[in-house]
Protein: Fructose-bisphosphate aldolase
Amino acid sequence: MLVSATEMLQKAKAGHYAVGQFNINNLEWTKAILTTAQELNSPVILGVSEGAGKYMTGYKTVVGMVNGMMEELGITVPVALHLDHGSYEGCLKCVEAGFSSIMFDGSHYPIDENVEKTKELVKIAHEHGMSIEAEVGSIGGEEDGVIGRGECADPEECKRVADLGIDFLAAGIGNIHGKYPANWEGLSFETLDAIQQRTGAMPLVLHGGTGIPEDMIKKAISLGVAKINVNTECQLSFADATRKYIEAGKDLEGKGFDPRKLLKPGADAIVETVKEKMELFGSVGKA
Structure:
């Protein structure tokens, strides 16, 4: 059964580790992530962007697939199904569809409007037993058409949003979605520290987890980050393994073109990436 992410992230923050949010795009992705979480006895958050939700034909399809898969695979570790970078309307749709967690990304609105919309969604989410993440300071790069420069959030604005009753907070600390450019300046730990001081025990979220050096990840966890989002890295490992399979001509051998065979190397590569991340984040054995 799907659970809200609140308890797993409070435990993670108190225990100085982080839970990975791994974005899903289809059945292979979902199966790879769920089986790895079960094998490593780790809590996990399945992230769904609005674009991926649309690609999978809608949020109800996603909920049906995840619930059915958890039952059939006998998944017993805590699993949250979370809307990633949701619009106000997207959040309401996921509440209705049966997600267990939502993120409202109001970072592109003026702070007062972000506060107002977040406040409304906190009430709705909590009435449905769901957890809610909010964002202050846009994350760099592009996510479903929302483009951010990797700016740093204002710690006072973070406190304003945290005080609305949200369950965890995503704050821009120089992080970027997608691949990091060669001239990236790194994470602003000064900003992160200032945000943690003002938000207390609230779990903080690090978006754009792909390509951040391991020592920075560990330092971020020590400064209150309890949820780290990974998407691009799984996509890259899936594409790389699939390319190698086709370039080696395996799809032309016997029934190598069967999608179950064609997609297997990519799915196996996602498993390896997720394992690596769960070990790095410290969530192994914490279910």
